[in-house]
Amino acid sequence: MSVYNSLKTLDEKTIDKSMNTIIQQTEYLSTTISDFRNFIKNDRHKQKFSIVDMINKSLSIADAALAKYYVQMITDLDTDGYCNGFESEILQAMLNTLNNAKDALDKNIKNEEERFIFLSTDIKGDCIIIKIKDNAGGVPDEIINKLFDPYFTTKGDNEGTGLGLYMCKNIVEDSCGTVSVANRKFIYNGINYVGAEFTISFPIDGKAEFCNR
Ligand SMILES: Nc1ncnc2c1ncn2[C@@H]1O[C@H](COP(=O)(O)OP(=O)(O)OP(=O)(O)O)[C@@H](O)[C@H]1O
Ligand SMILES: [Mg+2]
Question: Using an 8 Å Cβ cutoff, are 172 and 164 in contact?
Fold first, then answer.
């Protein structure tokens, strides 16, 4: 009713003017969005890069945050291989996965207990495999199939969007790779642990016969 009343008091000229401003602004915004999308698209190009170099870059970025949460990184990066893909996006996917492990360790492992992330590279057939495993207790069986779904999160409203692993999967697949998760039981330094293990695999040297991305 009050909208109707105020509309009544508005003359046609003012309405027209406001409408025009709205139209102009939406047009401006939509051009900005498409310019931005084109910019991102053009900026993206596949290139050949060393997996171990990419991992080392991600570790130098994540180091301080992991140290702050008393997380010890155990790396085994003796095997290297080239991937043909979007390096900076894959680096983001690595950071996301490391950050998830850090969150799970922070939530489930008390300060006085040891918190580990194991990061390794290996070659299997034509693929280079990256494994990221923690000792945070693993993912409950009821939700493990949902982890890569968009907006799936077990974190609070302001703590997680649930887009991290969904983005990881898209990023890895755009570079012709695959990503999966499984719970692992393992022994380290004589102690039994359980944790989630993320496996990311890329065709070595970009050899991807069936990849048309
Ligand atoms: N290493 C891990 N151990 C146990 N659970 C994990 C691990 N990594 C991810 N998860 C589970 O997967 C869910 C989805 O992860 P995802 O990265 O997609 O979103 P998020 O971390 O909740 O939020 P954000 O979008 O901010 O990353 C998490 O909420 C968590 O429950
Ligand atoms: Mg996340």
Answer: no
